[in-house]
Amino acid sequence: PIKDNDYIVDCGANIGEFYIALSKLKNKKLNYIGFEPSPKEFKCLSINASNQKYEQMALSNSSKKQKFYISSEEADNSLIEPKIFSNFIYVKTNRLDRVLTNTRIKLLKIDAEGCEIELLQGCEAILNNIQYISVDLGPERGLEAKPTFREVIPFLINKGFSIEKISQKRYTFLFLNHNF
């Protein structure tokens, strides 16, 4: 349940389609923050979520410049080399727990194209401030296109989360934080 002024954090926001869906909730005032490192997709995000907050950066478990593979046609832009990519750029990465330190987050949505565990490790200091996490754990990690559920599920369960729902269609999991 989304309430007025809830914080929704969208990691791997792409062009902002998640914000567009959220904005259709009638009579809800949201605090949306979108993170997207790809320049082309970020430009679209800045248009689609123009009245919200958004940052052009990749979220990970460290703060540094890192190689970022562009695969816009496949919607698989990633910090980890995918099977198909057109080129690469260098982007700044940051830990989410350094960007949002004291914010109570209703929903953290993660679509990190195989970098989910690194992104969650970069949230460790603020996990107790996050009520729900929705994460795509499908086969998108690297050249072998491995799913990431084997790393992510135990990590979140050990941090006090439980699985609330699973979408088999896209390997999307919804976790609830019992420490929130």
Largest sheet: 7 strands, mixed
Q: What is the overall number of helices? A: 5
Poorly predicted runs: none
Strand content: 25-35%
Work out the radius of gyration. 15 Å
Give the end-to-end Cα distance, rounded to a whole number of Å: 15 Å
Could you report the average pLDDT, rounded to the nearest whole number? 94
Structural class: alpha/beta
User: Helix amount, in percent?
Assistant: 10-25%
**Number of extended strands:** 10
Trace the largest sheet across and list its strands.
3-2-1-7-8-10-9
Shape: globular
Helix and strand run:
EHEHEEEEHEHEHEE
Which helices and strands, and how do they pair?
Elements: E1 7-11, H1 17-23, E2 31-35, H2 39-48, E3 53-55, E4 58-59, E5 64-70, E6 87-94, H3 96-99, E7 105-110, H4 116-121, E8 130-136, H5 149-158, E9 161-167, E10 172-177
Parallel strand pairs: 1-2, 1-7, 2-3, 4-6, 7-8
Antiparallel strand pairs: 5-6, 8-10, 9-10
Keywords, please?
single chain; 180 residues; alpha/beta; 7-stranded mixed β-sheet; 3-stranded mixed β-sheet; 5 helices; 10 strands
In short:
The protein is 21% helix and 31% strand. It has helices spanning 17-23, 39-48, 96-99, 116-121, 149-158; strands at residues 7-11, 31-35, 53-55, 58-59, 64-70, 87-94, 105-110, 130-136, 161-167, 172-177.
